[in-house]
């Protein structure tokens, strides 16, 4: 398995005509009994699992491309490719395939792909029509050649035949020689024919032809042919752009000539596909699939070669962070890394993972920390793009780096604070960079993408870090623009290093709206940390100052922030709002808006409607008590009348409860503890058991004495009223006897009875039912437990 000649990557072509990497392994060709023939086997180098098992069929068309690729189709719309690390290994497997099929290994294609419909057409059309015979490559025959190339595009079989003919006779180089002659003679007709010929050859979609056309000695002539589009009055100047305008900059000298040639080739082929060739029609969209694959594999190869050259990348990052590096040189270095990361997007996930880990090991994040703080706008923009690639790939990797940074005395050097400063100081009037950075910050502080499985403390640790070292930087512009006193503590803490700006400035309003959007996100996802911060900084009061902004979108952002807080239905927040009288700016905004029916009006009414529907009692009472007079005139919605109705209903319930309890005497300390205890909480019951039994026994004896006296008529002073149950102890004597002619006692339940509370017991020796009835009328039943 250590033989690098047989080391390959397995690719399959997906529905979007993009190559998917299926893994890296080692290929062999052996006889497989189950498949009854010689087969290609690829076993993964990581675990030895089988990545590919494909029988070499005698009728399958195999193609060798770029000396290290073998491509074939096994079924309809299922294309496979093996990308070899070394040319020698590709040649060995190619010879084995050709040996099984009985073909000449010097050819780059083993079969002519023919589907069933083409086979039927083959039987119907005379044999001679399939023998593509190329006219002599002469100036006088260019029109004939152009007609031939154009005519074969509709037939897959004839395209294959023409491609073979063009390859076998070295025809491409002869045509390009004629191009130079026509251009010297200014033969426009011949140049127009050559445009049709070269365009048609590209549409043959054959990698073997691309290898010839895109070689160093041919590609500029191919571009030259494509300049002479017959539909244009004047030819385009593509070669002039590629040779003079587009400059290849080596930020660090590339010593590998093969790598340099591959970079040049890829750029020029990409230019041909994106700029020169017209957008293919629906019928032509598959004609250039091989061209797309050609570019894809080139990019993969470039990234791999650069990634393996550790000296090159190490030098790049060393110069990038060196203070002595000139600004123009640093700009080129940052742009190189940006292009490098953009190329990596063509890689498959596992390859991209290895790519970014390599960059992380080389110190990409410390380098970004330096370059993002520089004054050069181009450098900062490129660094922001690189940072976005890293955050999108792995937010956890960025968070881990941030938390491992040494805690400096100045928080400004922290990477996240550098990012926040870039967002705040964006000079773009539309704040395009600030919007991008805000999205990246939201990704970093989103608990949803924090790895709970591998590191359960990541969320807690990172959020604690963020609120301790970064939140004050984020809120500094907000606090600065809502401060009534410029010498206030918050202003000093948060904005000493940020230039205060005019609150009415449109760009500032946009920035504050972005900050509020991020804070609103925090309210929704960071329950504890943001709550503590809001309470300590009195943040909601400062935010609601923006309800007075002349920019309605900013007032709506402030209102949305409050709406998210109220939507949590958290009583801590509710008490904070009530204590600070924080509905006042919202109601003032509603009244100032007048009769205008706009988004602000609807949003404020929705806020109060939510409070009404959810029956948030504390807020309803506060609103009605303090603001109903100002709101009762609003009748086009029933929201405020509904709030008043909810308030009255709750008031009635409270008064009924008070009436029910008005005769109840105050409870002493022992009874308070007993009533407030949970039903299922029996702690302390054993300790109190003996005392309760004694009190009940004493109470029961006095009760029986009074009852017997009443039965014998000896208690005439009671005027026929039932005997009053004396309290179990002097401490239980009620102090509201002046308001009630009948004193009541709430007896605790006896230990022998399991129920939490019982009424008076009908004892067996109680024979006088009428007296019992009178007693029940004068001694109301005990009220339920306070905790129920």
Automatic annotation (TrEMBL):
InterPro entries: ARM-type_fold, EVH1_PP4R3, P4R3-like_central_dom, PH-like_dom_sf, PP4R3-like
GO molecular function, one term: protein phosphatase activator activity
Region feature Disordered, mapped onto this chain: 671-697, 710-788
All copies of domain Serine/threonine-protein phosphatase 4 regulatory subunit 3-like central, residue ranges: 144-649
Domain of life: Eukaryota
GO terms, biological process: DNA damage response
Comp. bias intervals (Low complexity): 710-723
Signal peptide positions on this chain: none
SUPFAM superfamilies referenced in this protein's UniProt entry, alphabetically: ARM repeat, PH domain-like
Polar residues bias (residue ranges): 732-743
Every PP4R3 EVH1-like domain range: 5-101
Pfam families documented for this protein: EVH1_PP4R3 (PF22972), PP4R3 (PF04802)
GO CC terms in record: nucleoplasm; protein phosphatase 4 complex
Biased composition (Acidic residues): 671-685, 763-777
Record function comment: Regulatory subunit of serine/threonine-protein phosphatase 4.
Family: Belongs to the SMEK family.
Protein name: Serine/threonine-protein phosphatase 4 regulatory subunit 3
Organism: Gasterosteus aculeatus aculeatus
């Amino acid at each position: 398995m250590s033989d690098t000649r047989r080391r390959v990557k397995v690719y399959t072509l997906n529905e979007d005509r993009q190559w998917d990497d299926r893994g890296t392994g080692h290929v062999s060709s052996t006889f497989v009994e189950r498949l009854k023939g010689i087969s290609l086997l690829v076993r993964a180098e990581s675990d030895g699992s089988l990545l590919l098992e494909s029988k070499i069929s005698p009728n399958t068309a195999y193609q060798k491309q770029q000396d290290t690729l073998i491509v074939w189709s096994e079924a309809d719309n299922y294309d496979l490719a093996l990308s070899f690390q070394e040319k020698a290994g590709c040649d060995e497997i190619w010879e084995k395939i050709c040996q099984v099929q009985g073909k000449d290994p010097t050819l780059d294609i083993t079969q002519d792909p023919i589907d069933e419909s083409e086979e039927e057409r083959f039987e119907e059309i005379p044999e001679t029509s399939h023998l593509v015979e190329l006219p002599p490559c002469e100036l006088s025959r260019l029109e004939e050649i152009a007609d031939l190339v154009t005519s074969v595009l509709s037939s897959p079989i004839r395209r294959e035949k023409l491609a073979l003919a063009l390859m076998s006779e070295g025809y491409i180089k002869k045509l390009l020689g004629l191009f130079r002659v026509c251009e010297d003679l200014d033969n426009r007709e011949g140049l127009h024919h050559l445009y049709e010929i070269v365009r048609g050859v590209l549409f043959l979609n054959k990698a073997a032809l691309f290898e010839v056309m895109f070689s160093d000695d041919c590609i500029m002539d191919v571009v030259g042919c494509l300049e002479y589009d017959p539909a244009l009055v004047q030819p385009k100047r593509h070669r002039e752009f590629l040779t003079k305008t587009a400059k290849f900059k080596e930020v660090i000298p590339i010593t590998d000539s093969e790598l340099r040639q591959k970079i040049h080739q890829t750029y020029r082929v990409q230019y041909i596909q994106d700029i020169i060739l017209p957008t293919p029609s629906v019928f032509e969209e598959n004609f250039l699939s091989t061209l797309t694959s050609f570019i894809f594999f080139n990019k993969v190869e470039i990234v791999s070669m650069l990634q393996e050259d550790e000296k090159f990348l190490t030098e790049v990052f060393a110069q990038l962070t060196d203070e002595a590096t000139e600004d123009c040189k640093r700009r080129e270095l940052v742009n190189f890394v940006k292009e490098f990361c953009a190329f990596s997007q063509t890689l498959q996930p596992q390859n991209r993972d290895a790519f970014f880990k390599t960059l992380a090991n080389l110190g990409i994040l410390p380098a970004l920390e330096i370059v993002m703080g520089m004054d050069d706008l181009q450098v900062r923009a490129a660094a922001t793009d690189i940072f976005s690639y890293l955050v999108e790939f792995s937010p956890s990797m960025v968070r881990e780096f941030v938390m491992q940074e040494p805690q400096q005395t100045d928080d400004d050097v922290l990477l996240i604070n550098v990012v926040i400063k870039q967002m705040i100081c964006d000079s773009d009037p539309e704040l395009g960079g600030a919007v991008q950075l805000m999205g990246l910050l939201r990704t970093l502080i989103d608990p949803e993408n924090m790895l709970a499985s591998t590191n359960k403390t990541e969320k807690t640790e990172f959020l604690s870090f963020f609120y301790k070292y970064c939140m004050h930087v984020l809120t500094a512009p907000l606090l600065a623009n809502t401060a009534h006193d410029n010498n206030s503590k918050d202003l000093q803490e948060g904005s000493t290093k940020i230039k205060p700006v005019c609150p009415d400035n449109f760009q500032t309003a946009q920035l504050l709206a972005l900050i509020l959007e991020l804070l609103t996100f925090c309210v929704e996802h960071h329950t504890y940390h943001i709550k503590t911060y809001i309470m300590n900084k009195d943040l909601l009061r400062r935010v609601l100052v923006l309800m007075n902004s002349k920019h309605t979108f900013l007032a709506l952002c402030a209102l949305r922030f409050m709406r998210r807080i109220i939507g949590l239905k958290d009583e801590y927040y509710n008490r904070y709002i009530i204590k600070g009288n924080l509905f006042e700016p919202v109601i003032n905004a509603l009244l100032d808006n007048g009769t205008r029916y706009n988004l602000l009006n609807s949003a404020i009414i929705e806020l109060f409607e939510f409070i009404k529907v959810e029956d948030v009692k504390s807020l309803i009472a506060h609103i009605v008590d303090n603001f109903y007079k100002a709101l009762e005139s609003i009748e086009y919605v029933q929201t405020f009348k509904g709030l008043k109705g909810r308030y009255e209903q709750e008031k009635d319930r409270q008064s009924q409860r008070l009436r029910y309890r008005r005769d109840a005497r105050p409870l002493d300390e022992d009874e308070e503890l007993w009533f407030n205890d949970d039903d299922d909480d029996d702690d302390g019951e054993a300790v109190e058991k003996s005392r309760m039994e004694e009190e009940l026994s004493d109470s029961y004896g006095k009760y029986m004495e009074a009852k017997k006296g009443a039965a014998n008529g000896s208690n005439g002073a009671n005027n026929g009223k039932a005997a009053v149950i004396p309290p179990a102890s002097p401490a239980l004597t009620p102090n509201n006897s002046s308001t009630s002619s009948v004193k009541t006692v709430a007896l605790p339940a006896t230990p022998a009875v399991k129920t939490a509370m019982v009424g008076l017991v009908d004892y067996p020796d109680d024979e006088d039912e009428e007296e019992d009835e009178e007693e029940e009328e004068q001694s109301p039943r005990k009220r339920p437990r306070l905790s129920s």
